[in-house]
Amino acid sequence: MPEQPSDSVGLVRPQSAHFDDPLPLACGKTLSAYDLVYETYGTLNAERSNAVLICHALSGHHHAAGYHDDSDRKPGWWDAHIGPGKSIDTDRFFVVSLNNLGGCHGSTGPSSINPETGRLWGPDFPMVTVIDWVNSQARLADQLGIERFAAVIGGSLGGMQALQWTLSYPQRVANAAVIAATPKLSAQNIAFNEVARQAIRSDTEFHDGYYADHDTLPRQGLKLARMVGHITYLSEDAMGTKFGRDLRTDDLNFGFGVEFQVESYLRYQGDTFSNSFDANTYLLMTKALDYFDPAAEHQGDLPAALAPAQCPFLVVSFTTDWRFPPLRSRELVNALIRAGKSVSYANIESSHGHDAFLMPEPRYQAVFAGFMNRVAEDLELSARPTEETTAHAL
Amino acid sequence: MRSDLTLIHQWVPQGARVLDLGCGDGTLLHSLARDKGVKGYGLEIDPDGITACIRKGVNVIEQNLDDGLANFEDEACDVVIMTQALQALRRPDRMLDEMLRVARECIITFPNFAYWRHRVHLGVRGYMPVSKSLPHAWYDTPNIHLSTFNDFEALCRDKGLTIIDRAVGIKDHEGRLMSRLWPNLFGEIAIFRITRDN
């Protein structure tokens, strides 16, 4: 049994919240009932003021930190930043991390049963947007008795949710951290998403999304989608350093099998993903990304769109991120300045491209921890909150 | 707090919107926010300075001053402050124009190259001056546009700017009176408060 590191939240258990109140969606449809799967780390204090919401990215989920089982090889996806003494210090904060609607890790989505038909939702699951997610997250907060989050935090697509929180529920967010994100996707971003979607939709096993009815999976399409996506998460430098032009065998074999290490890596990443992620969910998530554009309602005037926000922002970008480059974060920062909002911005030197937001990097950690420390000081949170609700870390 | 910062603290009006160029660890903005209800942003490129600002809750933007202030609108602020950074810029004169576009009033401090100790270094000993205000060697200094108290006054005159207030900072008590009489000789740090209004 591998021992968990001392700065880990340890063994954690997902929980589920059920909602019967119909949720109206941006697409015009309504979800009559739904479930959200979530995890919590740390302890909610008596004042209920130390809650932090973590919003996940495209392929993320509720398991952000700790381990589900002693035999788990890897901890949750943001374990580098969540735990005792880490940037999001679970000795001070009560962390809530959920799987978004439309997801495939337990929350209601295309692979859940549609109560109206008794069959899987599949491609009939309604399109969900960042705004819808934030609305559903607010209802989860209601159920957990959290009126106001000390901070709402997210990277990439998660950062867009954090930003949306400050616009949809300004009075319920004390601070927001928007990391490696963008106020809207560029044409190139949408183009990459469209290639990913076409890869899935053109797989003969896709069956217009009803692959479950045919007892099959569009593995090949999802694999290709992930391979394309994965390239955009890494920097040219990181790929070069990791693989260079290294071959798997000593000689060229003049064929189309796997020859270069980078080919092998991408195929492995694609294969793993296509066996663990739902294709319909992937399609939904990429559309949620494409649709996000808070300035659209204001004729493209981002500062006007940001007017409702009240909280201080931390915006972080990474130098080699070419998916959502530093320039996109600066666009957000400059709009926040024009709107007269409190904002700090750091552009972190990293060779890891977009994926840098997931990793521990000393300067990133110093900035992140510095921000969270100030959040805690403003709320006068002690190092150990008083017991009320017990944490669900076992 | 550094003596030049103490003086600036007095000059900034209550509740002003302030932009601090090269804000370092945010000491000035932090005290201005606490004592005078000042709101604003600091610009900085030093990673440790940026982290220190974030820890204090001072708004800091990672931004190179040589890239200009295009992201700030005309008269976005009441006062733009720049302490000990002018001499490290590629074009100090253009930055001055930018600062006075963003605010009507600016406060600028820089090391006075004509300070008597600097003159002794260069004039008598024949070496480039190294001092508390100019701590670098000639080959690794970020200070590429050194100037004197008189030089800056001349630049303001050429640009038709009004000097509201000026002072010099000195480390020791020696020559406090002397620096008032002959600032260009006895002032180690030059401090100017200027406006584009007449």
Write the layout of secondary structure elements.
The complex is a heterodimer of chains A (394) and B (198).
Chain A: E1 15-19, E2 23-24, E3 30-31, E4 34-41, E5 51-55, E6 82-83, E7 88-89, E8 94-98, E9 113-114, E10 119-120, H1 130-143, E11 151-155, H2 157-168, E12 176-179, H3 187-201, H4 219-233, H5 236-242, H6 261-274, H7 279-291, H8 302-305, E13 313-318, H9 326-338, E14 343-348, H10 362-378
Parallel strand pairs in A: 5-8, 5-11, 6-7, 11-12, 12-13, 13-14
Antiparallel strand pairs in A: 1-4, 2-3, 4-8, 9-10
Helix pairs in contact in A: 1-2, 3-4, 3-7, 4-6
Chain B: H1 3-11, E1 17-21, H2 27-36, E2 39-44, H3 47-56, E3 60-62, E4 79-83, H4 92-102, E5 105-111, H5 116-125, H6 149-159, E6 162-169, H7 176-181, H8 183-186, E7 189-195
Parallel strand pairs in B: 1-2, 1-4, 2-3, 4-5
Antiparallel strand pairs in B: 5-7, 6-7
Binding site for substrate (chain A): 226, 355
Site (Important for acyl-CoA specificity) (chain A): 323
Main location (chain A): cytoplasm
The CATH H-level superfamily of the largest domain in chain A is Alpha/Beta hydrolase fold, catalytic domain
Q: Which CATH class of chain B applies here?
A: Alpha Beta
What top-tier CATH class of the largest domain in chain A fits best? Alpha Beta
Tally the beta strands of chain A: 14
Distance linking N and C termini of chain B: 32 Å
> What is the name of the CATH topology of chain B?
Rossmann fold
Q: What's the overall average pLDDT of chain A, rounded?
A: 95
CATH architecture descriptor of chain B: 3-Layer(aba) Sandwich
Report on the biggest sheet of chain A: 8 strands, mixed
Give the total of domains of chain B: 1
The share of residues in helices of chain A is 25-40%
What series of H and E elements makes up the topology of chain A?
Answer: EEEEEEEEEEHEHEHHHHHHEHEH
Q: Structural class from helices and strands of chain A? A: alpha/beta
Total tally of structural domains of chain A:
2
Q: What fraction of the residues of chain B are assigned to beta strands by DSSP?
A: 15-25%
Function (chain A): Transfers a succinyl group from succinyl-CoA to L-homoserine, forming succinyl-L-homoserine.
Main location (chain A): cytoplasm
Pathway (chain A): Amino-acid biosynthesis; L-methionine biosynthesis via de novo pathway; O-succinyl-L-homoserine from L-homoserine: step 1/1
EC number (chain A): 2.3.1.46
